[in-house]
Protein: ABC transporter ATP-binding protein
Amino acid sequence: MSVIELEGVEQRFHARGTPDGYLTALKDATFTLHSDPPQIVSLVGQSGSGKSTIARNILGLQKPTAGLIKYDGKDIFKLSRAENDNYRRNVQPVFQDPYSIFNPFYRVDRVLWKAVKKFNLTRDRAKGLAMIEESLNAVSLDPANVLGRYPHQLSGGQRQRIMLARIHMLRPEFVIADEPVSMLDAQIRKTFLDILLDFRRDHGMTTLFITHDLSTVYYLGGDVMVINKGSIVERGAVTSVMHEPSHPYTRLLLDSIPPPDPDQRWTNRIEVDDSGDQTPATAPQEPVV
Ligand SMILES: Nc1ncnc2c1ncn2[C@@H]1O[C@H](COP(=O)(O)OP(=O)(O)O)[C@@H](O)[C@H]1O
Ligand SMILES: [Mg+2]
Structure:
């Protein structure tokens, strides 16, 4: 059983036009994710509320300006080489736009072969191919249909499922998914979420699911954290938070949508904020593969 703990995590950025020259993107974020039993925890908030900052901090892409992120009790920014390799294997990202992660000049197979090599899954080419095919099947992609293709030859939903196939191969303890379905249409969105739910059930993976879409939160169930202007204002089971919100901001979010209706979820999608969720151009955009 593994635990990721955030303790008082703060992320400030230099910013012009603010009184002290700083912008505080994240304030005192304190929460834990555990792998046993596996969880689905949604992090919901509007654009600019600090969601991607949390993802980047947990993934070790950005060191917070204060506070600690611990994996099994150890500061993730002070791990030994071997511990860091173990963390990188067990905490895997999925981002909003997989297109930016694929190199347009290489076939999509490369992303999967790189995972085989980087994480030493096997040295045997036939076994590697068998693993790749098994993982593509696990995310309902036909290997014959996608292998050998270039990123632009696949749909957004297929590219995103290749990233899920990669995760299926690696079997991490934690998946940090930052708005992974924002650019997908309703039916493909549902397929994607169902795969994450399968991963929890079949492989014990815990997902931190970042979204600005409340209907997605309802669909996933599990726990939810609500973030507003860099502060996590509420955390609890989706059912209780949505039915009895204790924070005014959560109430405000909920007031803007009708009560959940399982049959209507995918036709009447409600956005917390329809301006989209753009990471500023200044933010580091680190390719993961
Ligand atoms: N590298 C950066 N430099 C300066 N400001 C940033 C940087 N990254 C994020 N921010 C700012 O921090 C705040 C939170 O951003 P972000 O975590 O991307 O929010 P979200 O993912 O919820 O939309 C925003 O005001 C954003 O403009
Ligand atoms: Mg974001």
Remarks:
- The longest strand covers residues 22-34.
- Residues 223 and 237 are 4 Å apart (CA to CA).
- The radius of gyration is 19 Å.
- Confidence is low (pLDDT under 50) at residues 262-289.
